[in-house]
Every structure is written in C-alpha cells, then in structure tokens.
C-alpha cells in the first residue's frame, strides 16, 4: 500500500502538461515495448489501480463480507467536510497520474484485451479509463490524515472520448495519463490521454473527459470536494474549458427532445424524410414505402440481457460503471457491424449518462438502436434499464452514444414513427457534435 501511495505522489511531482499531451520524451525501446523507466516518470501498473481503489475506500475483497465493510464505511460520515471552504485547494498536479498497460512487454496480459481480429477490445479500455478516472478523483481529494476516504466517488458522465486513431495494437505498450481539470462543489472533471508505443515513440490514441460525483460513504447524498487552483495559463485554459463544458451540458439538457420540440431546421429534416417514404400511388399519409438503399429503424435494433452478478461489483457494491460501458459498447458495435455488413471502427463515444446505480442481482436489459447514418458513419444509441420481475417495473439506468465508421457506405436509416424521428434527430445532434464539426 505504501509503495503505491509513493508512486502516486512521485507521479504528481513529475507532472508536466507536456507529458499529459504527448506522452513526454522517451528513451529508445524495442518495437511495441516501451522503455522500462522514463526518467522522473515512475510507472504505475494498470493491475494496481483496482487494488489501490479498494484500499482507499476499504472495500471488501469477498462478497460475503460486503455488508460489514459497508457498515464500516458508513461510520466514516463524520469525516466529511461541512463546507467546501474547509477543504484545502489542490493543484492539477496533485491528481496527475500515469498508468501503464504493458501489452507489448507482458504477453500474458494480452489475452484479456484481445479481439478475434487481433485488435484490442475497446470495451476493456473503457473499463480501465473508468477505474482511472475514479483514482484520479481520489488523488485530488486525498487527505493524508485519514486512513480511508469517506467519499464514494461515482461516474456521472463520460462527456466524450475522441479517437485520434482507429487501430489499437494488441502487442504495443499503452500509457494513460490524466488529472483533474475542473471541479464544482461535489463534481469533478477528469481528462485522460491514452497513447501507444510504436516505432520508438508514443502516439496519441484517444482523449477522454469524465465527470465524477462525490457522495457520502453510504452513496446517498452529495459530498464536498477540494477546490482546484490553476497554475499558469495552460491550467487556466483547462479550468475555463471545464466551466464551458458544464454550461454546454446544461444547455444540451434544457434543449433535450424529451423536453422541447425540435428546431425549425430539424422539423424540415423530419418532414423531408416523411415525404421521401410516402407512396405516390396511394397519396395517403398512412401508406409508407421504404426508399432504396434504406432500412427502417425498427429493423436496426439489437438487444441483450445481463444478470448482474457480484463479480462485476465496484468498490461500493453496485455494478461497476466500466462493466456497463463494456457491455453497451459491445452490443452497439455488434449492431453497427450487422447493420453495415462489415467490421466498424469506433470514431467517438459521447455523453454516456449514468442516471442511476445498478444494484447487484439486477436484470439489466440493454437495447441498441442505429439512430442516424451518414455516408460510412453509423450512430448507435444504447439504452439500459433494470427490470424488476416482482413489480414488473422498468427503470432507465444509462444511455450511451457511439459513433462508428465502416469501410464502405452504409444504408440510410429511416424513421417511421414520431418517436423514431426524435431518436433520429437526437442521433444527428450527437453525430454533428462529435464528427461533423
Ligand atoms: C469490491 C471489490 C470490487 C473491485 C472492483 C474495482 C472496480 C474499481 C472501479 C471503481 C469505480 C467506481 C465507479 C463506478 O463504478 S460508479 C458506477 C456507475 N455510476 C453510477 O452508478 C452513478 C449513477 N448515477 C447516480 O447515482 C446519480 O445520477 C448521480 C450521483 C451521478 C447524480 O445524482 P444527482 O443528480 O441526484 O446529484 P445532485 O443533484 O446531488 O448533484 C450532485 C453533483 O452532480 C452533478 N451532476 C449530476 N449529474 C450530472 C451529470 N449528468 N453530468 C454532470 N454533472 C452531474 C451536479 O451538477 C452536482 O455537481 P456540483 O454542483 O455539486 O459540483
């Protein structure tokens, strides 16, 4: 435990914005295998991340002990700050973390990450990113006077993941670097950069932005997090970007099609699609014809079910957010694959919302829908809900948005009902936000 804490602190000391963006300067290594030690940048192995999180919150390693561990955690409530002013301000470097996934150097690790097509399972990367975002948030809120953190830090949102390249190689070392870039009262924005070591240098793979929320030890109410003090113009910029991200999220949620009518331009799009599907022979509003090279939305769905076993729990005895993302991603990918008739590549992950925790033992129903297409692009939405067989109630827990691209043009997706048209517009909004601009 001590040595891992040492690693966290050392990595903070070696923080540079440059290493966050580019992976920093490296000594020459073999193809796919990064050098063992980078001067001033100690390595933190990915398999230590979960253990470290367990230690920080005092989670049980056995499911049979989880109730006792939970009861012990609830007793930490008295350690919570009564206001944010009580907590010392932290710097961005205090939460800086560098984590290595040595797929090139440790072949035994590869199995877990390998697809049938000899690429890396992106769902596994989503799991690692989620665990890392949590660890970064705990590093920000770290209090050396406490043995355990009283905070339960959960993933509220994956704001976006921008892919810088489509292929992730299964035999090259991966490095994640990240830190907190903005804080609210109880929310934390963390950015993570992932790069891969190839041909003697680290190349960018993706940039991810997460929003985490701190809760009390019982995960019932919001809890204050340390303020953040930027140092220098670059950090000022990141902080302002975080503030702008928050305003953008509020605007987006206010303009949600679940709350307000589509814009004039959007209404024109929907009416154009409707006119395109009218049967000119019958001149009736009701008889609809599928245009050539198109697929009705109702025929572009794929569903799945997960029984949420204790093995997939997080440190707070709920289902791990990364697992939910992996399952949703894999279903979305399979749907895009069957829709386009070829293996799609991921372009962006956007606005994954964790609305409600998923309890252990839940029946989790995942439902994916191709909701927008353009040229080679397929926009997929995955909705997940828990179903209680006793009360027969359904409750939405998550909504995921993925953008894929194929190596050829895909058929046009065609909404038939008003509800499907809203899904289409929502997909278009996500597509325009991530790809078109
Ligand atoms: C045990 C051994 C196992 C080991 C396994 C190891 C795994 C390791 C991995 C461990 C990994 C563990 C990780 C996991 O696996 S976490 C599991 C996945 N995540 C969840 O289950 C979370 C589900 N969602 C919720 O519980 C609620 O919706 C939350 C708590 C998120 C918000 O609830 P609510 O809305 O009622 O909260 P509030 O009104 O009091 O607001 C509080 C703050 O939250 C901000 N906010 C809210 N929503 C959003 C949003 N969408 N975008 C941006 N911000 C948002 C809001 O602005 C405010 O900020 P501020 O103004 O205070 O700053």
TrEMBL record:
Residue ranges constituting the HotDog ACOT-type domain according to the UniProt record: 95-218, 298-410
Q: Which InterPro entries match?
A: HOTDOG_ACOT, HotDog_dom_sf
Extract the coiled-coil ranges from the record.
none
PROSITE patterns attached here?
A: HOTDOG_ACOT
The molecular function terms of the Gene Ontology recorded here are: carboxylic ester hydrolase activity; fatty acyl-CoA hydrolase activity
GO biological processes: acyl-CoA metabolic process
Name of the molecule in the record: Acyl-CoA thioesterase 9, tandem duplicate 2
């Amino acid at each position: 435990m001590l040595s891992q804490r040492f690693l966290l602190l050392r990595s903070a000391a070696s923080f540079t914005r440059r290493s966050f963006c580019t992976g920093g300067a490296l000594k020459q290594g073999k193809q796919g295998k990064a050098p063992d030690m980078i001067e001033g940048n100690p390595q933190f192995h990915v398999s230590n991340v979960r253990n470290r999180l367990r230690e920080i919150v005092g989670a049980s390693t056995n499911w049979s002990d989880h109730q006792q561990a939970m009861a012990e955690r609830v007793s930490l409530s008295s350690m919570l700050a009564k206001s944010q002013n009580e907590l010392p301000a932290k710097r961005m470097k205090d939460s800086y973390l560098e984590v290595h996934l040595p797929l090139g150097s440790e072949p035994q690790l590869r199995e877990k990450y390998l697809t049938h097509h000899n690429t890396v399972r992106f769902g596994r990367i989503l799991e690692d990113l989620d665990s890392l975002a949590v660890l970064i948030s705990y590093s920000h809120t770290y209090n050396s006077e406490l043995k355990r953190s009283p905070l339960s830090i959960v993933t509220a949102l994956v704001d976006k993941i921008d892919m810088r390249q489509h292929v992730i190689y299964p035999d090259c070392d991966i490095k994640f670097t990240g830190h907190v870039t903005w804080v609210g009262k109880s929310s934390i924005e963390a950015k993570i950069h992932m790069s891969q070591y190839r041909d003697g240098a680290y190349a960018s793979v993706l940039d991810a932005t997460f929003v985490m929320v701190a809760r009390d030890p019982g995960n019932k109410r919001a809890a204050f997090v340390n303020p953040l003090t930027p140092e220098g113009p670059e950090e000022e910029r990141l902080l302002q970007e975080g503030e702008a991200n928050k305003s953008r999220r509020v605007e987006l949620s206010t303009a949600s099609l679940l709350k307000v009518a589509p814009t004039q331009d959007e209404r024109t799009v929907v009416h154009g699609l409707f006119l395109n599907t009218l049967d000119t022979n019958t001149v009736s509003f009701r008889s609809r014809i599928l245009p050539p090279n198109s697929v009705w939305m109702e025929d572009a769905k794929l569903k799945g079910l997960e029984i949420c076993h204790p093995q997939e729990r997080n440190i707070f005895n709920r289902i791990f957010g990364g697992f939910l993302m992996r399952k949703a991603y894999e279903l979305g990918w399979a749907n895009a694959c069957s829709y386009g008739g070829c293996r799609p590549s991921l372009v962006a992950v956007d606005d994954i919302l964790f609305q409600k925790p998923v309890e252990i033992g839940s029946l989790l129903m995942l439902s994916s829908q191709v909701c927008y297409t353009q040229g080679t692009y397929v926009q997929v939405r995955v909705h997940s809900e828990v179903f209680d067989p006793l009360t027969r109630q359904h409750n939405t827990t998550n909504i995921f948005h993925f953008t894929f691209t194929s190596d050829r043009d895909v058929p046009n997706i065609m909404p038939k009902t008003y509800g499907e048209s809203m899904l289409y517009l929502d997909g278009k909004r996500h597509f325009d936000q991530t790809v078109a601009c």
